[in-house]
Specification:
6% strand, two-stranded antiparallel ribbon, single chain, Cytochrome C3, mainly alpha
């Protein structure tokens, strides 16, 4: 019974946090030659349901922008911004066989 209560609490917290996700975000922190990426953040949050899947170092309700940890160049243990985004985003899209995986599919002109 205790496990059921814990599972409901964890699931509910994820749904509540996902409900507060911004509709769209523009990722333009380190753009050099490619256009910025516009991401339907709310759709991703609703589909994934757990913010920590992407915001892997932040506790629920205290998520930060990716660029808070991932900079233009590798800093400490954190991979550089471009490597982190390509690894996390493209990696998930490839694994799920859904979503953009080519440059101009995200970096639209």
């Amino acid at each position: 019974m205790l496990m059921a209560v814990v599972m409901v609490a964890v699931f509910s917290a994820s749904v509540i946090v996902a409900a507060d996700a911004p509709e769209k975000i523009v990722i333009n922190e380190i753009q050099k030659s490619k256009p910025a990426v516009t991401l339907n953040h709310k759709a991703h949050a609703d589909k994934i349901g757990k913010c920590q899947t992407c915001h892997h170092k932040n506790e629920a309700g205290k998520e930060q922008k990716c660029s808070e940890c991932h900079k233009a160049t590798k800093t400490g243990d954190a991979p550089e911004f471009k490597e982190a985004m390509h690894g996390k985003c493209k990696g998930c899209h490839s694994k799920e066989k859904k979503g953009p995986t080519k440059c101009d599919e995200c970096h639209k002109k």
